[in-house]
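Example 3.2
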Amino acid sequence: MKILIIEDEPSLRELMCRELTREHYVVESAATFFEADAKLAGYRYDCVLLDIMLPDGNGLRLLEMLKAAGRNENVIVISARDSLEDKVLGLELGADDYLPKPFHLMELSARIRSVARRQRGGRREVVLGNVSLDPEGQRVTVGGEPLHLLKKEFRILAYFMQRPNHLIDKTMLAESVWGDHVDQLDSFHFVYGQIKNLRRKLQEAGADIEIQAVYGFGYKLVAQAVEPA
């Protein structure tokens, strides 16, 4: 899961980044309205943690812009302004949750997992064919047997399994798995290598899903045809 933290207080922003990274999320951050607007315009996220009071604008305006653009990021408003009016306005604008400051990091993690489960229709695991992926427990099984993946391999598989049969551009995949630091790299060889290893592991485990290369575009996850008995 790729998360954007929009928070102007440096120590809290750093604490949130460190904790969520430790929980294996891909985490990016912005300290101002302008910086957050630029990141949201250039990247896609699974969850946005949105402070209302930013030094150069109101965070709720960013929420309005997201919803007006038809974006489907989960948004959790985090703010010291715990008035009923702010909470109601945020939820009416399309926020998925509202967490007043101060909060415990354990509660923040629980809220993120909760909105992710709601987006998946309440299901904890993502199942496709004989492959089951638990995003929270960071576990994958094939036919009931555990499949051992490296951290980046797990993130790639999770991204694909949440978008079966969708054409995935290699740039979007890289941004979602590695974050905006991907801009500092001059090739996608690291993406190709990770996908090659993941495809091999799925095949060796007898998975009936397959990551197919789509020439000139990227990749697509499909279920393999099962031969009749």
